[in-house]
UniProtKB/TrEMBL annotation:
Taxonomic classification: Bacteria, Bacillati, Actinomycetota, Actinomycetes, Micrococcales
Coiled-coil stretches: none
Protein keywords: Metal-binding, Zinc
One Pfam family matching this protein: Adenine_glyco
SUPFAM superfamilies associated with the record: DNA-glycosylase
The keyword Metal-binding appears for this protein: yes
GO BP annotations listed: base-excision repair
Listed name of the protein: DNA-3-methyladenine glycosylase
Length: 188
């Protein structure tokens, strides 16, 4: 249900409102940017998204701007460094998955592919559901496209990704536009 400002979410916190207004549902291309989004979606699992938004600057510093080549070279010492960094979510499985995901991006590059092409090959034919949902209860948690994307990412070496996380990333990266009816940021 839209909030008092008409936003479908994000009122009550300027950081969350800015994310809603300028990022969520906006198409993202670029392997570094997509790696960041997929890693942050994995870190968010089980937590509130605002927690990740608050920690995003620290994540970007800790993970070298999510540069795939740099993160792929992280070793056990880096894992321990990250586990000691109070500015990020200190979860070994999620940290190790982020490193594995960066290595998977490099493997894609070695095969002449990009994460951008892989991800966007799973975009649905129509970005916007017609009619638009009025409440988030009407928005699916997974779709056949998110299941296929998660499967291909796993096959490519990505970890900590399933159909639900893949769909959340598809929303965040603009493969789908799930802003609710009446939201002022609805795309044309």
């Amino acid at each position: 249900m839209p909030t008092t400002t008409g936003r479908c979410f994000g009122d009550g916190n300027p950081l969350y409102a800015e994310y809603h207004d300028t990022e969520w549902g906006v198409p993202v291309r670029g392997d570094t940017e997509l790696l960041e989004r997929f890693c942050l979606e994995a870190f968010q699992s089980g937590l509130a998204w605002i927690t990740i938004l608050r920690k995003r600057p620290a994540f970007r510093t800790a993970f070298a701007g999510f540069d795939p080549a740099v993160v792929a070279a992280f070793d056990d010492d880096d894992v321990e460094r990250l586990l000691g960094d109070a500015g990020i979510v200190r979860n070994r499985a999620k940290i190790e998955a982020s490193i594995a995901n960066a290595r998977a991006v490099l493997a894609l590059w070695e095969d002449g592919r990009t994460l951008t092409d892989l991800v966007w090959s799973h975009a649905p034919e129509h970005r916007v559901r017609t009619p638009r949902a009025v409440t988030f209860a009407e928005v699916p948690a997974t779709t056949p496209e998110s299941a296929a994307l998660a499967k291909e990412l796993k096959r490519s070496g990505f970890r900590f990704i399933g159909p639900t996380t893949a769909y959340a990333a598809m929303q965040a990266c603009g493969l789908v536009d799930d802003h609710l009816a009446g939201c002022p940021t609805v795309s044309a």
